[in-house]
Amino acid sequence: MTTDLGGLPSAAHPSSPARGRAAVAATAAATFTVVTTEMLPVGLLSPLGAGLGVSKGAAGLAVTLPGLVAALVAPAFPALAGRHDRRVLLCGLMALLALANAASALAPSYGVLLTARVAVGVCIAGVWTIAAALAHRLVPAPAAGRATAVVFSGIALASVLGVPAGALVGEVAHWRWAFAAVGVLAALVAVVHAVLLPPLPTEAAVRPREMAALLRLPALRTGMALVALLVTGHFAAYTYVRPLLERVDGITPGAIGALLFCYGAAGVAGNFAGGAVAGRSARRALLGVAAVLLVTVPPLAVASGGAALPVALLVVWGFGYGGLSVSAQCWVADSVTGGRAREAASGLCAGVFNAAIALGAAAGGVCADLAGVSVVPLLTGATAGAALAVLLLAAAGRHPAEPG
Fold first, then answer.
1. Residue 359 DSSP SS3
2. pTM to 2 decimals?
């Protein structure tokens, strides 16, 4: 079962294939920058907490809060955005992101930092909602699937370059310089969008009752449940990956940045591998993600026997999780038809995704503070197992029109 809320004007396609590819790359730069900003505290958790005088669990709120704000704003964003040109909105969101990072870099207290992170949450909601559905407007239909994978590669590249680079800056200079650097990047991306993106007008705003109609689609509801389970479990452990790795014999604090780079590099490969699989079967791709999380993360609860096995598990974890975003978006695209429906469904997906980030980071923080970080990976195993059960049950009763 699918639903159609109508289309967006196809005239948004750039005038040449080269301009279309450049516009897709610019959109990927936006997802890279916003996800780097969102995840930056992961690589800086220990120095950030020490610098502002809060525990590691409390410092995790710097990840939780933007995710919570994005979760609240994203489902409403298509309606709030109305008929405003999406190019103008993206430029404005990137400018706001630059200001939020500057405020974080200069924050005199943890309260001020969290206030800046609220603005980051708004940017996450807007960029995710627009960018996830934008590939179909930037390139011809036959190239849309590959372009979507490129847009989502910005998420994986944020793990490869953004978070490890932030951790490295924190080690070499100070955690504040990491936020300042990403703020400069966000400002540059805003300029690039103004130059490279074509006008992206909309013919009509998404109405609340159209959003409600999407929630009645069984396939879309199943997809949102899978996103909730997998993302919650992932971020329960990933938010605290630094203290988890610091417990392992043979891994020094100075090596964390390099290990996160390896994790992210595997995630980039996983993004394109997951996109290739999801292009044929989003269900099969999500089964693979859930299985990888179930097998790789829980063993990290035991920090013994040297660094080789934990490092190998970390890399495979990155590869598996790297395919989640593009696989989830393919599931969404298969569940609905029409441009406005796709953007509205992307808003719902972004809301669930970021609510799960907030829930996962918060749950991990509670476990880390009450029972120690060694318990956190077990949460990931539980949620991944639940996701596998949902997929198998959904496959057993699948309607022919639902994603295969």
1. helix
2. 0.76
**pLDDT digit string (tens) for 324-370?**
988 888 888 777 765 557 777 878 888 888 788 778 888 888 888 88
Query: Do 19 and 351 contact (CB within 8 A), yes or no?
Result: no
Q: What 3-state class would DSSP assign to 344?
A: helix
Question: ∠260-121-42 over CA atoms, to 5°?
Answer: 20
Q: Domain-by-domain residue ranges, the chain?
A: 10-396
**Cα 223 to Cα 40, 334, 361, distances in angstroms:** 27, 10, 21
Domain covering 10-396 in this structure, CATH number: 1.20.1250.20
CA distance 342 to 136: 10
> Burial of 249 by CB count in 10 Å (0-12 exposed, 13-18 middle, 19+ buried)?
exposed
Burial class, 371, CB count within 10 angstroms (exposed 0-12 / middle 13-18 / buried 19+): exposed
Give the chain's residues under pLDDT 50: 1-2, 6-11, 400-401
Residue labelled with tokens 């829930």: 359
What is the CB neighbour count within 10 angstroms for residue 299?
Answer: 13
Beta bridge mates, 4: 337
Q: Report the pLDDT value the prediction gives residue 307, as an integer from 0 to 100.
A: 83
Q: Which two tokens stand for residue 160?
A: 């490869």
Residues 340/298, Cβ–Cβ less than 8 Å? no
> Do the Cβ atoms of 105 and 180 come closer than 8 Å?
yes
Angle at 327 between CA 330 and CA 319, to 5 degrees: 160
Token pair for 219: 């396939």
Q: Which residues pair with 337 in a beta bridge?
A: 4
